[in-house]
Amino acid sequence: MQVTFASMSSSIEFIRAGKLRALAVTTATRSEVLPDVPTVGEFVSGYEATGWQGIGAPRKTPAEIIEKLNREINVALADPKIKAQLADLGNTVIPGSPADFGNFITAETEKWGRVIRAANIKAE
């Protein structure tokens, strides 16, 4: 038996073609593109692991540039064609502010930090 935890965008076409069998998704809710595939959380209570991507800029980038980039990125993410293409790959678009993204990164860092400490994982 071979098993992998692959991102939805890298595996969705193989799943659709019948070359991979999806056993579960690791997100908290079922995927809209694979609604019949259960979540791991349906078998392991509380389990959730989500891959994500975002756009960052160097620390000293002027606020007006950050605001313009954020505004234009959110406009693009609201475009129905772009949104549909991302959704077709199994991605969920979550537009927001730089502060929202910073809060998300902080929450993810704390969440996975707890997992690392609980499992006593050490860097080699």
Tags for this model:
124 residues; mainly alpha
How would you explain this protein's 3D organization?
The chain is mainly alpha-helical. Helix content is 44%, strand content 0%. The protein contains 4 helices and no strands. It is globular, with a radius of gyration of 17 Å.
Separation of the first and last Cα atoms: 29 Å
Structural class: mainly alpha
* Count of separate DSSP helical elements: 4
> How many beta-strand elements?
0
Beta-strand percentage range: under 5%
Unreliable stretches covering 5 or more consecutive residues: none
Q: Whole-number radius of gyration?
A: 17 Å
- Tell the overall outline: globular
Q: Main β-sheet, in a few words?
A: none
Q: In a nutshell, what does this entry contain?
A:
The chain is mostly helical.
Give the secondary structure arrangement, pairings included.
Layout (H helix, E strand, L loop, with lengths): L7 H9 L46 H16 L1 H9 L9 H21 L6
